[in-house]
UniProtKB/TrEMBL annotation:
InterPro entries: ADH-like_N, GroES-like_sf, NAD(P)-bd_dom_sf, Zn_alcohol_dh. The keyword Oxidoreductase applies. SUPFAM superfamilies: GroES-like, NAD(P)-binding Rossmann-fold domains. This is Alcohol dehydrogenase. Residues 26-89 form the Alcohol dehydrogenase-like N-terminal domain. Keywords: Oxidoreductase. The lineage of its organism: Bacteria, Bacillati, Bacillota, Bacilli, Bacillales.
Amino acid sequence: MLQHSLTLVGPKQLEWKSKVLPPIEEDEVLIRTIAGAISIGAELPQYSETDVTDPNPSYPRETGYESYGKVVEIGREVWGLKVGDHVIATYGHKDYSIEKGHNVVKVPESINYTYALLNTLSCDAGKGVLKLNPEPKDRVLVAGAGTMGLLTIHFLKNYVGVEQVDVIDPILRRGEVAEVLGAKYILKESSTVYDFGIECSSSKAGFDALLRAMKRNGDICVLSDGNKDLLYLNEDFYEKELRIVGSSDGWDYHKHARWFFDCYKKTPQLQDIFQHEIKSNELIDCFEELSQHTINPLKVLVRYEE
C-alpha cells in the first residue's frame, strides 16, 4: 500500500511525499482517509514559520492531526472494530495510515463526518473546562471565538450547563457563530466581572482583556497554544491574585466521543465552524491562500477521493 503524506519541508514549502506502508501489526488498523481538516490556529503558524513557541523548527515535519476514514484492514488483536467501520484519528494529511487500534475512535454511521472531525479539539477544550470545574450559575468569559473558543462554548453550555457564557472577539462574524451556540458576544470589553475565564485567542490583547474582566481570586485556563503572541501577566493578575492553569490535549477521546456524538442532533450547527471546503489535491494551494489572507475561514474541511 502506497501512502501519500503532505509534508512541510521548509517555511511555506509543502510537498506530497510517498512511501510504501509495511504490513500492519496485530494490534493495528489500516485506514483509508475520507476527510480531514486544517486546524488553522495551529497549522498556519507552523507553515509560515511564525510560531513564537517554536523559533527554530526542524524539517521535514508532518502536517495536520484531524482525520476521518474507513477501516480497510484490521489486526487480529484489535477489538471493537471491524473492516468497514468509520473512525477518527490524529494522523493528519495522509490518504492512508496505519494506527494502533486503541488510538482510533469509532464513529456511528448516523454521525456526519464534518461533525465527527471536531471531536478531537472538543475533547481538548473539555479538559480545560473540567480543570476549572465551573458550576451552572458561574459567570464564564471566553477570549477568542475561533474554533477552540466555539468548542469551549459548546462544552460549557451542553456538558456543564453554564447559564452565562460570554465571548470576546474583535471579529463580528465569529461572534455571530458564538451566539448561535448560546453565548453572548462582546466586541471589545466587558463590564461584567467573571468567576472564570478561558483563553482561546492566542493574542496578547485578548488575554489582557480576559485578565481585566476577572473577579478577585478568579480562575483562568489557557487553552490556546500561545503560538501567535507571547502572553504576559499584567497588573490585574497580581492585584486580583488570579490563578491560571494550562491545559493541553484531551481528557479521554473515547469517553468524550460518546457524549459528543450524543449531542449531534441537538447541536448540528456546530458543523458551521467549517467555512471552507477543498479536495485533498488543493491543500498546498489552500495553505498559501490562508497565509496570504485571501481566504479567512474558521476552519477548512478537506475531502479525499473515495
